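Lab notebook: predicted structure, single chain.

Context: the supervisor wants predicted structures on file for every construct in the current expression panel, including those that have not yet been purified. This is the next one on the list. No modifications to the sequence; it matches the entry in the shared construct table.
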Amino acid sequence: MFEAVEYIVESIDGDYAHLKKADFSDNETKLVARALLPDSIREGSRLLYEMLQYSLIS
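Prediction complete. Output recorded below exactly as produced.
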């Protein structure tokens, strides 16, 4: 039901981050509140979205 998806942090804009799917199947970015993301993210960080949570891959 909940498929794991990898994202790359494309940019950080204040309290929000623009995420792009790591497989580049979609050209659009997803805007996500930084409060929902791990504290240590940076531009270029890889995230895993699974079971309604984001975790840092690298």
